[in-house]
């Protein structure tokens, strides 16, 4: 690869910890005449893993920089250097409009931090909305076919666009591990509860039955344990005994869409590390 | 007026307080075979004013009911009974998309609680967005004309639709008392600060300069004191020293749109009383 | 009972719903020349139960008023009228000081809304603190005796004070149904998680292991299902990946104490109805 | 100064920015065999000032380390290295107990992160509370003497204890610049509003009159502009039209005490930089 003429890069490192890593990394960056715009590190105090995210400005060949850093780090260290660039998303939906609508509005006014390439739905309800924004909508019904067949069709629709991330914006189908592993650590979901409370179906019904006084939303990375993937961000809104399950759902929608959009921004800006089924987030 | 066949009504009463009002009102409703769905009262402990909002179900001639209630209340009591029905809105905008976009998405999926009749902008930036939703957009530029002439044109555009409420969804022009008094107590504004902090222009610049750790949004009724009208609802989001004024604005947008939508719902559902430059809100 | 000379009363009613109850109740209060200070009702829309809490001012024999209301209500209606008065509390603790300390400070400055009669601990750690406030502390160790024997001793210590409510201010022993049923619906607990997440032991350890981004606290009435009793109020605080389980616990303490104090105030002011393992709260 | 045997140090640097500072600092720390526990930097994007706080573990002579760092930094750079140690506080109060009570309870159970050396009050109301915790209370009445005389007596009482910080825990006297400059950047105040709203006296009265829907609290460093000093942290709680000014004050107390305790912890842990009348906070 020839010298990249990009001006801004994100450097991400994860490795087991030892003394002197920050010193080494910053020295390498300094020698290459890269200016540190923003820098953050974290060391897990129990497992002694080291994480670092650095935004730099300058000119560099990312591959060469990665190589130099790697040779100064413990074996198995993971090093990545990428020019900052808009990531591509494919959004999966079912019938609910609020999360998709919010992403579309942000996208239409360059406020999402990513490019929506297409929307894929297992129902047709949101096709009109997507078309209003001149984006492709793929209707992939699950009716009359097996889960495996349906996921195969979903894959085909999604992979037309080679997205960096797949965003589940209230996509109400359970995904198989096979599907999930096709986009490892690259699926972001919004779950309409304050996880780990109310895992599974109908969380607002569960929340209403339990009589909670706050309802929440959780954005997380999807792994094959579904609602048990690493949590990116969470929010809550207060409710009272006067709220029906439907009222709770309505209150929840306002926080769901904000939380999902925040999570999307965090992942597409390379601010999230996954680790031990948790996230480390450099905001 | 003949017997109305509507099934649900909102009865609103404001009067100076005296003993027995709730008893009288509920007895009248009971005798007319109206079932109380939801009931709320408030008595100002200092000024001894009484406020009541009651949702009832049944069949009634609203005018007759109002008359009967009024004759049992102190002189000057205000009584209103309306069948519940979607109110009509005209939305005023300038260039920012997030509040308008949020209202449009809610409206498109019957989640706003009101009907958007048209959008009027003093810039053309949001015309495309409005057209995507098949709603009328009126571009009324303020360039090259006086404030009075501009407001006259705005009036003309708005009044085509005889709206129940005018919603300022980041409309960035100062309104004259003349304009405001044309829609008395019927203009809802979102101010991008936690009022009364940062009254006036560029609140996020002010907030950044002051080094606050929370930024806020305030939805209020517009009176001729502009940012000093009665507050309907407020929200905040945390910020840090790392936020530029632009970052604060971005963080603030997420709360602005939610707060404005909440305020719109409260007013169109007749839940807001204005009183002593404050609001009484029966949620 | 002779005419009570108290000036303020709380009237509480629960019954299956039928038309006209509010009208009847307010008419009875009006005829008895009682002035309604504050009034709230709720009807469960599915189960058609009716709840009402009314604060009145005037002079009345509570027993007679209860009787008159009851005979105008459906059979099995529950009616209670009590003069407002400070309730008495016994507080149970183990080793953690923050909730107890907060209650003691409020109590010392008449800001609790209740009277602390005594503190009972299964460890001696907090004895000094309680003594500083000139209140009785009973040390009832659980060491070397059976759970039944321990609870018997706890009962004995508590019942010396005939409390209206027993408050578990981080009392870290599991209670038997036998113990709980001795104070039916009169035990308030603070659980250090956002229930129903992290039921059981060490919720902050669980929360840390799960990688949540908010930690919470839940005040609830204790029934024989322990952490599953009716929720009174809940709160959350944000945390990050940098928080150890101990940091989460520290962050949580600030919300635990505030939430517990709020719950105590709600119950001692007779604002809480228990219903269907949930609470109805008239704030 | 001989080699210090402390094990943990905080290194703080502020300087105008230039390339390579982080690299230089971390290299120096590495060469001295100091292990970085936690590290944070911030560069003001407009004014190009650089701030860094690093916690290290090891053995070092702080003076020598400061010297070595300083000679590698731009002229006028500020460098400080201190072993971590509990700071000493003197608390100033008037009549309100909630903030003082909260600090005393935390202090009594080693949960404050600082040592309370004494409490000084211009009223006697809180003397008993302080004495309960076996701490010195100085009653310095302002009655019958001039402001200057009173402040002189306050100084005398405070300076007996050579505190690192003076904490105004609802001290309701206006301080002169002369008094403030005696403890430059070392006075922490809790203001009972969401600054800059409701500067000055009786903020809850002001908030009630304005009809806000949230009330707040602000902890800040006191400079000679009083309520206009750099903000450390802020919080809010929701209120409704039913809240009297007294109810707002009560709601506010729960957030005031938590916010003040948080601010105290941030300053005594050397996490706060003051800059351009704002704070930079490395949490």
Quick rundown:
Chain A is of the alpha/beta class and 283 residues long. Chain A is 31% helix and 30% strand.
Can you tell me about this structure?
- The structure is a homotetramer of 283-residue chains.
- The model of chain A has no long low-confidence stretch (mean pLDDT 94).
- Chain A is globular.
- A 7-stranded mixed β-sheet of chain A has the order 7-6-5-8-9-10-11, with helices on both faces. A 4-stranded antiparallel β-sheet of chain A has the order 2-3-1-4, with helices on one face.
- The first copy, chain A, has helices spanning 21-31, 62-71, 98-108, 127-132, 147-159, 177-181, 203-210, 245-268, and strands spanning 8-16, 35-43, 49-57, 78-83, 87-93, 114-121, 137-139, 165-168, 187-191, 214-221, 231-238, 272-275, 278-281.
- In chain A, helix 3 (98-108) packs parallel to helix 8.
- Helices cover 31% and strands 30% of the residues of chain A.
- At the B-D interface, strand 11 and strand 13 of B face strand 11 and strand 13 of D.
Helix content of chain A: 25-40%
Arrangement of strands in the largest sheet of chain A? 7-6-5-8-9-10-11
Largest interface: A-C, 30 and 30 residues
Through-space gap between termini of chain A: 31 Å
Q: Tell me, rounded to a whole number, the average pLDDT of chain A.
A: 94
Low-confidence stretches of chain A: none
Shape of chain A: globular
Rg of chain A is 21 Å
Order of helices and strands of chain A: EHEEHEEHEHEHEHEHEEHEE
Largest sheet of chain A: 7 strands, mixed
Structural class of chain A: alpha/beta
Oligomer: homotetramer
The number of helical elements of chain A comes to 8
Proportion of residues in extended strands of chain A: 25-35%
Record field, number of beta strands of chain A: 13
């Amino acid at each position: 690869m020839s010298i990249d003429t990009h001006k801004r890069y994100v450097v991400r490192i994860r490795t087991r910890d030892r003394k002197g890593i920050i010193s080494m990394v910053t020295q390498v960056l300094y020698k290459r005449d890269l200016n540190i715009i923003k820098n953050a590190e974290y060391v897990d105090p129990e497992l002694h893993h080291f994480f670092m995210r650095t935004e730099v400005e300058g000119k560099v060949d990312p591959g060469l920089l990665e190589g130099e850093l790697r040779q100064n780090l413990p074996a198995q260290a993971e090093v990545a250097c990428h020019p900052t660039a808009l990531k591509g998303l494919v959004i999966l939906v079912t019938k609910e409009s609020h999360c998709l609508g919010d992403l579309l509005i942000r996208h239409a006014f360059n406020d999402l931090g990513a490019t929506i390439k297409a929307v894929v739905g297992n129902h047709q309800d949101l096709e009109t909305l997507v078309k209003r924004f001149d984006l492709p909508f793929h209707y992939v019904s699950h009716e009359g076919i097996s889960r495996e067949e349906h996921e195969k069709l979903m894959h085909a629709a999604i992979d037309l666009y080679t997205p960096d991330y797949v965003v589940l914006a209230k996509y109400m189908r359970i995904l198989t591990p096979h599907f999930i592993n096709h986009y490892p650590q690259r699926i972001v979901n919004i779950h309409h509860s304050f996880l780990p409370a109310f895992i599974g179906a109908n969380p607002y019904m569960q929340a209403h039955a339990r009589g909670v006084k706050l309802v929440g939303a959780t954005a997380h990375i999807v792994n094959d344990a579904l609602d048990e993937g690493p949590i990116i961000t969470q929010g809550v809104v207060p409710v009272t005994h006067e709220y029906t399950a439907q009222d709770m759902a309505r209150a929840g929608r306002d926080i769901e869409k904000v939380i999902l959009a925040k999570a999307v921004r965090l992942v597409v800006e390379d601010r999230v590390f996954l680790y031990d089924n948790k996230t480390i987030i450099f905001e």
